[in-house]
């Protein structure tokens, strides 16, 4: 049958996989240094004690993104998700726009720093700041020339290879299923170990896995795919489920490697070099080589995704505050001159965090994702109101979804308060 700008046919698993897209892009963008760092630290320092945060955070993220996507597909006016938030209150576009700008800067900070460290190791030229500058300059070229699709295909190959190695190591290490089950059901906060306390890691894990403001990217990827009306709802949900399942597999594999390989060898993660030890212990130089190539692929993909995706969220928010700009520049966000400046801000200003003497990749990844949870309660309250509007008809939330949203709001509120306390302490 014909749906929107695409033809969707029942072709079994192969056809379904070919139809997927936004979820894969979303996973590639979301899977960055933070997941690698937080899962490794949690596994190496606390075993499986904090494992309960992984399913809890992924459930919250799925609920958030799925409801936002359904709203964008199903509202009769054809509003974007940010337009919907404006209908709830004019405060929301202002908040979301500033939140995306600030967090975009901070998220990109540790990714640029991580890319610099990876290249410094790969080329044996130990000046990460210089490499970070090169990364930013190359990203500017890639965005301007619109050649990232070609580069991204190469990056995906390295990412898949690194993922398979982590999964292989995780299986080979014969993980403790009892420990995983106990950690998943235990809701335990263990005693502090290593450089980062258990509460701090719990909040940072929740921040990186839940997704924060980056969850707004999925509806824009969805729109670019041509999914624009309720007939795409089932395909969108299956796409997001697939993305969530892949996130579980990847993060769980990294976690197991931390718990079963780094921890028994008394390797405490304080830098990305410590994480590479997991591969070098079993594969020698080739293991480290593969790790750093994979890390570069992960963070470079995320740098491009965030510096190109988050400005769309910000410009959309700007158009809700100043509707005359939307009337002047049209529906395509890239046509607004501010898109370029927001993109440059998110891509270029984070280079200051790569200057020698600034916090390293691991420290940045941990604390930035702690800050990332602070804005989540406000966003969830907005989603709760938005998704229960009478104008949505049969696409309004059911009672179960409302229970999940309320529970998610309470959890993120607790995390936000804890994040403020941890940051100020």
First-residue to last-residue Cα separation: 58 Å
The chain-level structural class is mainly alpha
- Name the shape in a single word: globular
Q: Return the CATH class.
A: Mainly Alpha
CATH superfamily: Hydantoin permease
Secondary-structure element series: EEHHHHHHHHHHHHHHHHHH
Oligomeric state as shown: single chain
Total E-strand runs: 2
Largest sheet: 2 strands, antiparallel
Integer tally of domains: 1
How many helix segments? Answer: 18
Strand order of the largest sheet: 1-2
What is the CATH-assigned architecture?
Orthogonal Bundle
Q: Rg to the nearest angstrom? A: 21 Å
Report the β-strand fraction as a percent range.
under 5%
Short description:
The chain is mostly helical. The protein contains 18 helices and two strands. The protein has a single domain (2-183, 195-395), classed as Orthogonal Bundle (Hydantoin permease).
